[in-house]
Amino acid sequence: MNKAMIQNAVRSGFVIGLFGLSSCQDEAQVRSLGDQIRGLETIQAQAKAEMGRLQLQMKAVQAERDKLKAERDKLQSQMDEAAKALEAIKKDFSDYKAQYKVSIRKRAPGMELEVVEIDGKKFERVKIRELTESNLTFMHQAGTMSVPLSRLNPSLQTRLGFERAVPVMAINKANAPITEGVGLDEELEEIDHEVVRLRGKLDSMRRAFAEENNNVQKALVITNSDPTLHRHAAAALQVRISESDVELASLLKRKARLEERKREAKGR
């Protein structure tokens, strides 16, 4: 074999070796790419599954939101209807009170009362001579007496159509903006006094309400006794009790806000 043949043989063997090596590398790359593709397909499948789960959760959340919105709208509608009904009742009751005041003043002269208590002193079996918007004049065993309606007990005040004016301070303090600084202590003290007054008023009206209900029951079992007046008095007391309960709740809420503001001021 000459030199040229030897060189050709060596060159051919080198090329074959290179081809074999290239084939091995390609197969390794193909396997690697296949593994990567399968890994990406797995990740994609997991992402699709997660996406599906999130979409279901979003649908469930949306359904819950729609349900809550429907319930809220229904509740708001009921509240609006209740507010309208309450306003109508208040108007009817206000009209009734106005009519009752006129009626009781016309009917009062000559009316007999079992007892009238003034500053702890009781006058029994009295007869009314005159009833005005602010005063009651009546005859008793010792003579004639005129007394402001404001001095009568709540039950008799209601029966005679008298209403105390709501203190301006109570209304203004319940709705006024909360002040800062030293004024908090004074305002809290005022609210405490008003709360005590309101609670005493409520206790008195509840006792009077119970008394009027008892009078209704007594009138029902007594011949020729009309319970209508006592029923009206009880109804009027019930409305005043409800109004005072609302006023008291408003004051207590304001007191809590003031106390919270006071604590915040101390922490600064």
Describe what you observe in this structure.
There is one protein chain. With 268 residues, the protein is an alpha+beta fold. The chain folds into three domains: 52-106; 108-151; 153-267, no CATH class. The chain contains five helices and four strands, in the order αββββαααα. It has a four-stranded antiparallel sheet with strand order 1-2-3-4. Helix 3 (168-175) packs across helix 5 and helix 4 packs antiparallel against helix 5. The protein is elongated, with a radius of gyration of 45 Å.
Q: Report the average pLDDT across residues.
A: 78
Shape descriptor:
elongated
Oligomer: single chain
Total helical segments: 5
- Helix coverage percent: over 70%
- How do the SSEs run, as a string of H and E? HEEEEHHHH
Report the sheet with the most strands, covering strand number, pairing sense and barrel closure. 4 strands, antiparallel
Radius of gyration over C-alpha positions, nearest whole angstrom: 45 Å
Distance between the termini: 107 Å
Secondary-structure-based class equals alpha+beta
Number of β-strand runs: 4
Report low-confidence residues grouped into runs of 5 or more: 165-171
Number of domains: 3
- How do the strands line up in the largest sheet? 1-2-3-4
Strand content: 5-15%
Write the layout of secondary structure elements.
Layout: H1 3-107, E1 112-118, E2 121-131, E3 135-140, E4 143-148, H2 154-159, H3 168-175, H4 183-221, H5 228-267
Antiparallel strand pairs: 1-2, 2-3, 3-4
Helix pairs in contact: 3-5, 4-5
Keywords:
3 domains; 5 helices; 11% strand; 4-stranded antiparallel sheet; alpha+beta; single chain; 268 residues
